[in-house]
Amino acid sequence: DFSSPIIQAQGVRSLVAAVLKEKGSNGPIMQSSTQGPALEALWQQCCSDCALVRSACCDAVVLLVDQGHADLQYVLSNVLILLPSARNTQGLIR
């Protein structure tokens, strides 16, 4: 964890790039898709203790859906799975 917002934002961008690389040219990320380490890390950071990272990662997940890289049902399902155990739910609920 770095305290600089610029470094944190770059980290989230790198994470999203890694998710897209893992996804490859396959269709949208769905429940049946293989969840690679970058996607798993993105989901974990959606519950980060750092508000900036949490918000940026949740925004990135929404953008993945908006751009057709992830299926909405998959994302909603994962949000519902994360909510009960998340220490910080602000980003997930927003």
TrEMBL record:
GO BP terms: regulation of post-transcriptional gene silencing
What name goes with this protein? Focadhesin
Lineage of the native species? Eukaryota, Metazoa, Chordata, Craniata, Vertebrata
The primary gene name is FOCAD
